[in-house]
Design goal:
By secondary structure, this protein is α/β, with parallel strands linked by helices. It is about 50% helix and about 15% strand. The chain has eleven helices and eight strands. An eight-stranded mixed beta sheet has the order 3-2-4-1-5-6-7-8, sandwiched between helices. β7 and β8 form a beta hairpin. α1 packs antiparallel against α2. The chain is elongated and about 65 Å long. The protein starts with a helix and ends in a 5-residue tail after the last helix.
Length: about 290
């Protein structure tokens, strides 16, 4: 995970004594890893202060302090469903991040727990998105609610809610558009879908809005989170391509700026390659404590 960034960070911690040049190199490395200039400055200053107070004398001492500092920003979330109630996950994200594939992986994940899952193809802007989700539904043996390309996405979600309630389903996974004719139209469409779900009596604690982010996009992931959060208040993040990411600071920034937890991470191509986010594992890898 995050190989290049982690290797460089580990090298900074292990290659020199704790002096001013160490902190300068650490600062440069964190900025390169998409932590952002402002947050990097905040973290490095806090590390300086705590290293003095705790009389840190080894690389591992500093790494543990660093992990504790970053843990204030990185959050995880429980992926369990509300028992005995219909759960709805509205899945958001720009095109190309692996949104539809992530939906299929989550469908498989919950189905293996014995949950009845319904897919809703509400990305009606792209014919390929509907077709792709339909193929996944067929492979997984799951029901899907869909309409023709260009149909009202809100109507798809409304029909899915009616079907799920009638069939006593446990979870609806709703795909949404990642692009429309302009950004304003996209945000209005998502707000409309959000209102339809909220007005159908779904318990607030059972309705989640998750943003899918490609782990390799770095700083762009922060911008995407801010954009979608401004339209519909997000509940968490699903991270794709987690195994091939070279940077990890964007997750820290998202947590710091929006207080959003990471819910799932995608680690490969198969339906089984999705896992609840492990905060300790991520932070150990990020600061180079993995295996220690």
């Amino acid at each position: 995970m995050f190989n290049k960034f982690v290797e460089k960070l580990r090298s900074v911690f292990s290659s020199r004594k704790i002096d001013e040049s160490f902190f300068e190199e650490l600062e440069d490395t964190l900025i390169e890893g998409d932590l952002g200039a402002r947050l990097t400055d905040e973290v490095v200053e806090a590390l300086r202060k705590e290293a003095r107070e705790e009389k840190a004398s080894s690389a591992e001492d500093l790494q543990k302090i660093m992990k504790d500092l970053l843990s204030r920003y990185v959050k995880s979330a429980d992926a369990d469903l509300c028992p005995g109630s219909l759960n709805v996950f509205l899945i958001l994200g720009v095109n190309g991040v692996g949104k539809t594939t992530s939906i299929a992986k989550m469908a498989s994940y919950y189905s293996k727990q014995g949950k009845k899952v319904l897919l809703a193809a509400a990305d009606t802007f792209r014919a390929a998105a509907v077709d792709q989700l339909d193929i996944h539904a067929s492979r997984l043996g799951m029901r899907i609610v869909k309409q023709s390309t260009g149909s009202d996405p809100g109507a798809v979600v409304y029909d899915a809610l009616s079907s799920a309630i009638a069939q006593n389903d446990d979870l609806i996974l709703a795909d949404t558009a990642g692009r429309m004719h302009n950004k304003e139209n996209l945000m209005k469409e998502l707000q409309k879908i959000d209102k339809i779900i909220s007005n159908r009596g779904i318990k607030p604690e059972c309705y989640k809005k998750y943003l899918v982010i490609d782990a390799t996009t770095g700083q762009n992931g922060v911008s995407q989170a801010m954009l979608f959060n401004s339209a519909v208040r997000l509940d968490g993040v699903i991270l794709t391509k987690y195994d091939s990411a070279s940077k990890g600071g964007a997750l820290v920034q998202i947590g710091q700026a929006l207080n959003l937890p990471i819910v799932f991470v995608g680690t490969g191509e198969s339906y089984d390659d999705i896992h609840p986010f492990d905060k300790d594992e991520f932070l150990d890898a990020l600061v180079g404590l993995e295996g220690k």
